[in-house]
Amino acid sequence: MQKSYRVAILGATGAVGVELLELLQNRSFPLKDLKLLASPRSAGRTMPFQGERLPVEPVSDCSFTNVDLVLASAGSSTSKTWAPVAVEAGAVVIDNSSAFRLEAQVPLVVPEVNPEALNNHRGIIANPNCTTILMAIAVWPLHQVGVVKRIVAATYQSASGAGARAMEEVKTQAHAILQGRRPETEVFPYPLAFNLFPHNSPLNHLGYCEEEMKMVNETRKIFGAADLRITATCVRVPVLRAHSEAINLEFETPLTVEAAKEILKSAPGIKLVEDQIANHFPMPIEATGQDEVLVGRIRQDISHPCGLEIWLCGDQIRKGAALNAVQIAELLAAKNLLQPANMAVSS
Ligand code: A2P
């Protein structure tokens, strides 16, 4: 008989939490029980699930008793506090925050790229940053054939990456501007409606922001390529929930446009959108709500004989966060690895 699991969502009321609920409902994850956890602000709220309304509980020391799997998406400091408590109570945690991603013993997993990294987990598995997941999905299959030496990425990131309140803020700002009023800012430092700005995460001593360094360090870890040369410029744009990325790849030897298209056509998690006659390529509006990352505008880099340009759009909340986490959970279940950390053995 197929095993089923007791699952808790930490951050259930957030943008990613709501998507996790929908994915658990619509995919056939073997669920025995579901618990919704958030901050004390959400006490008393209920959320719809499979025709019922489930209560949202404030997370506490007792929240993880009799829980097999925690899907956490409530920010880094919340994860740092509660993930160890959950593991201690016997649960496996798939964490969507940056809290543990670069820890050597924590697998950082994109199921289409490095599923084998799950085999020796010790209770916490990290879900990569959204821009990293989307880029990894598109670059990995090409890297298997052409060996990528250098990646230069520019991102066009939607409001959803900053959470549900940020999405509301952009809509409110758009209304205000259209009515001739000054847009107010609370989540973002500047108005995002009818504007864009370089990603506002903290800068390091070289002037790179945290988001850019996530793309660098996380991609290297996922690819198992510590020396891969990567640089990125991350920009927030007034799009609600799908990120776009322009990626320049330099290979060891030339990879033709035709070969790249053939590879991407059959790669998992990707849909090739490449209609030069209609000038139709990936757009965030068409990536929204999709499981696949849309990839297109594949061109030879005219400035380098071994260079290729690609363009992609992917739903930040879905494949960039919730779907990737649920796919990790499905893999853990299939490998019989959803059990307390010290008992996990790959089958
Ligand atoms: P709450 O709605 O009670 O504030 P988003 O990324 O969309 O902003 O969502 C963040 C999620 O993380 C929400 O579900 C939020 O719950 C939850 N959250 C934020 N801070 C905490 C905390 N200290 N403890 C538990 N959950 C938290």
Features:
seven-stranded mixed sheet, Rossmann fold, alpha/beta, 2 domains, binds adenosine-2'-5'-diphosphate, Dihydrodipicolinate Reductase, domain 2
What would your notes on this structure say?
By secondary structure, the chain is an alpha/beta fold. The protein folds into two domains: 5-99 and 321-342, 3-Layer(aba) Sandwich (Rossmann fold); 132-316, Dihydrodipicolinate Reductase, domain 2, CATH 3.30.360. It is built from eight helices and 14 strands. The strands form two sheets. Strands 3-4-2-1-5-6-7 form a seven-stranded mixed sheet, sandwiched between helices. It has a seven-stranded mixed sheet with strand order 9-10-8-11-14-13-12. Helix 1 (15-26) links the parallel strand 1 and strand 2. Helix 1 (15-26) packs across helix 8 (318-334), helix 3 (130-146) packs across helix 5 and helix 3 crosses helix 8 (318-334). It is globular.
List the helices and strands and how they pair.
Elements: E1 5-10, H1 15-26, E2 31-38, E3 46-49, E4 52-58, E5 69-72, H2 76-88, E6 92-95, E7 124-126, H3 130-146, E8 148-157, H4 164-178, E9 197-198, H5 210-223, E10 229-236, E11 242-251, H6 257-265, E12 270-272, H7 284-287, E13 293-300, E14 307-315, H8 318-334
Parallel strand pairs: 1-2, 1-5, 2-4, 5-6, 6-7, 8-10, 12-13
Antiparallel strand pairs: 3-4, 8-11, 9-10, 11-14, 13-14
Helix pairs in contact: 1-8, 3-5, 3-8
